[in-house]
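WARN no homologs supplied; continuing
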Amino acid sequence: MNTIKCIGILTSGGDAPGMNAAIRAVTRTAIYNGMGVKGIYRGYKGLITGEIETFKTQNVSNIIQMGGTILKTARSAEFMTPEGRKQAYDKLQEEGIDALVTIGGDGTLTGARIFAQEFNFPIVGIPGTIDNDLSGTDTTIGYDTALNTIMQAVDKIRDTASSHERLFFIEVMGRDAGFLALNGAIASGAEAAVIPEVEIEKNSIWETIQNGFRKSKNSSIVLVAESELTGGAMGIAERVKANFPQFDVRVTILGHVQRGGSPTAIDRIIASRMGEASINALLEDQRNVMIGLQNEQIVYVPFSKAIKKDKPINKDLMETLRILSI
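OK structure emitted
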C-alpha cells in the first residue's frame, strides 16, 4: 500500500525553460491525488537549510509560460558530503515529506541516486537540462527552447556574416554533448558543426570551409559545442586563422542567453507530461527512477542508466548537415 502523503519538489543545477511547467504539473497532480506538496527552494542547498514552503494550487498559477524556475536553484557543496545529506534527510523527516521529485540534469540525478541509496528514500527525477545529455529519454525539458534560441541567434548573425563576407564560429552550450550544436546547425542552415562526439580531424570542417568559399559563398557559419574536446569556438577559430589567413574570422559565444526565455509549446507539453508521470510513478511505488520519453511514450529509467553519460548522437545527422551545406 502506498504511504506517501506529502511530496517535496525541488529544482537543482542549471535552470532550463520548462522547469516551471514541470513544477506546476507535479504540484497539481499531487494535489489531485490527495497528497500534500512542499516546495523546496534553492535545490539541495535549500533542503539542508530548510527553505521549504507548503504549496497549494495557486502557488503554481500563471507560471507555465515563465522561463527559469520559481523554486530557484543553487549548487550545494554540503550535499556532496555524508553529513550534509544526513542534515537533508533530517529536514525531510521534520517537514513530514515522504518522497521527493527532483528536476534537473546529470548532477541533480547523481545526487538523488546517492541520497536514495543511503536513506532508502523514494525519489523520482525529471530531466530538466538544455544539454539533452541524459540517457533513456529522447529529449529533456529545455532542449527544444534552447535549440530555437540558437536558431534565432544564428539567423541574425548570418545577416551580418553575409554583409561582411565573414566566417563565423558560434559557440553553443551542451557541456560535453553535441546535440545543440548539431541540430542547431541543421536548423539554421550552418555550413558545419564541431561536436565532441566526432574527432576534429575526422570532422569535415576544413573541407567545408574551403568548399564553401570556393563555391563563392559570401559567408560561412560553423557551430561549435563548448567542450574541452572541441577546444570551443575560440580554439577552433585560432586554428583556422593559422591555416587560412585569408579568411575574416569572427567568434560569437552565445552563453547563457540559451538557458533563458519562455518555453516552447513542445517543452511545456513535455514538462507537463513528465510532471504528471512523476506522481503516477510514486503512486505505483516506483523509486530511484527518472521519467523519460521514448517514442512519445512515458518510461521509467533507473538513475544508474540515466546518468551513464553515453547518450549516442545520431551520426546520420552529420551526413545530413554535410550534404545540405554543399
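The mean pLDDT is 92.
OK
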